[in-house]
Sequence to fold (207 residues):
Amino acid sequence: MEDYRAIIGENIRRQRKRRHMTQEDLADLTGMQPSSVGKIERAQANPNLNTLLRVADALEMDLPELLAAPSSERMNGYLHNVYLPALPEPNRSAARALLQILNDVVNIELDSSYVQSLVAQVLRLIRHSFYEVISSRCRDTMYRGLRVYGIKATFYAMGRAERVKVIPDLSTDRKAVERFVAQLNRNFVSYDNFMDLLEDFMGGDEW
Fold:
């Protein structure tokens, strides 16, 4: 697996230059030292969640876009507005990158909104990474896949619109998130496996 620090650093550098910003400009917007920005871009630093969120906000990027491998940005000649490609296979590199950061999150004190945001981004990334797998299956499976997305959404599939539910606020139970992350790190091998783990984590169909 490619080092997620290298992916993050390259994405930050590319977006910064695209916006005609210097490292000093980005440092001013994020409250960091210019030398810290340089270290992150050169993959010499391990940015925490708070830093990633501030950088993503300053560069007007989505967190998944910040973590996605550059070669995955385009598909069929255009850039997806969700910043993630509809890949035929799981984007394990990006998903594992988010899980690695989530592992760090459960061991430090953060505002619950940060935790909630990251968990939502993890589920969002994996949902889009598995988009083609989900869309190739039956409507019930697609509906189940969208339910774990974590926000209200309307998904058009097989000519029908399905309203999906909101999952519980995961940020209130750090131990549950920690157990879920540990399970994923041990068992992140396939779409079916992921869905089983997530369904078990969410308590089956009760929610």
Observations:
- The mean pLDDT is 57.
